[in-house]
Amino acid sequence: xxxxxxxxxxxxxxxxxxxGASMVHGAGRxxxxxxxxxxxxxxxxxxxxxxxxxxxxxxxSVLAKPVLDDxxxxxxxxxxxxxxxxxxxxxxxxxxxxxxxxxPTAELLTGAWAxxxxxxxxxxxxxxxxxHTLPGTSFEDFFLSIGSGKSKKCEANEILRVFGPFPNIRxxxxxxxxxxxxxLRLVYSSMVDGLGKKIQAKDGSSQRIVTLDVKYAGERAMVxxxxxxxxxxxxxxxxRDELIRYRVIKPDGDDDKxxxxxx
Length: 263
What we know:
The protein contains 7 helices and 8 strands; from the N terminus they run H-H-H-H-E-H-E-E-E-E-E-E-E-H-H. It is α+β, with helices and mostly antiparallel strands and about 260 residues long. Strand 4 and strand 5 (about 185-190) form a beta hairpin.
């Protein structure tokens, strides 16, 4: 080729090289800007995620906190222990507590409870041994003790009265419990009478399983569903004192020592 042609080819090659370098450099700046911006986007995303997580935890915490109504608890206990009970008022107060939509915690369920209100004979038979339906026998009282979350032990003391000059009968149902949501499941693996003799329930079984759907649990009262019946329990400070009052244990007897040890 002539010198002029060579010069033209050289100019074209130089122009292409400079243009390509500019494009690569521009793309590099673009990638750099994108790369630097990306961590900020990531941080914003993480902060947003964290905020949503914190909001979710806060909401869960609020929902998990039991809602208590001390005034309605007191009114309900007054009604169910009154000499003349107003069923309509009792039902209204129960509905008010149940309407709170509470999911009771294990801490609120732990302790001793005395059965104060049971509207049907079937529910009364289901929660205990059912032996109160035997001739000459009547139901007197029922105490339910729920242990701590670690022990998972439960005990029920059923007090029956025998017509005539006979002492009250104490039946003890003991076993374990579990809590799933609002359901309190009691599994009684042992049932003995006041003399320590093993007994069987009315249906002949040696084990009883009772599932209570706890609708409300407060400092003084507990409302639970058993089948179609709604039960009301009252918190008691000492089952042992209640058993002494019914004269089914002696204050200085072996049963008393055993109860202290179990407590």
